[in-house]
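Onboarding guide, step 5: your first structure request.
Type a short instruction followed by the sequence, for example:

Predict the 3D structure of this protein.
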Amino acid sequence: MLNDIKNDAQTRMGKSIDSLKHVLTRIRTGRASTALLDGIKVPYYGSDMPLNQVAAVNLGDSRSIIITPFEKSMVGPIEKALMASDIGITPNTAGVVIRLNMPPLTEERRRELAKHVSHEGEEAKIAIRNVRRDALQQVKDLLKEKLITEDDERRADDDIQKLTDRFVKEVDSVVKAKEDELMAV
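The system replies with structure tokens like these:
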């Protein structure tokens, strides 16, 4: 029973880390990344489709992304979707190829993005602490039902706290790595 609770907590904390990493891939650094375009939807025959399903998305070099629509008629809708998105980059169109040139980040914008990264890290830590709270509550419920002893409860509490500390450190390292990437010129 206690092992199930610990394993569940570990799995859920791991998912919080994965979610944080996914969110951080969308934050633009000075380099081009196709992950910036993951959340963009394009209207395609009456339904919204992810950009990578209506066009080939590739890196031109470290500062540009090249989008090649599968159909010539999709150039306009893709441009509109890019303009409406929050990536803050104006597309350049040459025939059927759309190019996104990544401008270098200003010092002020880097600091702003670093604050956003820190905020996302705090959100992940809150999620991890909520998992810890749920696990501790499950252990207390087992104690109330007299399915475990008080010693078992203390040991489980310690194990869950160690697990929480480990995942919080991992969040700190992920956030620090992203901030370092942002601040590198």
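Each response can be followed by summary notes, for example: The chain has a mean pLDDT of 89.
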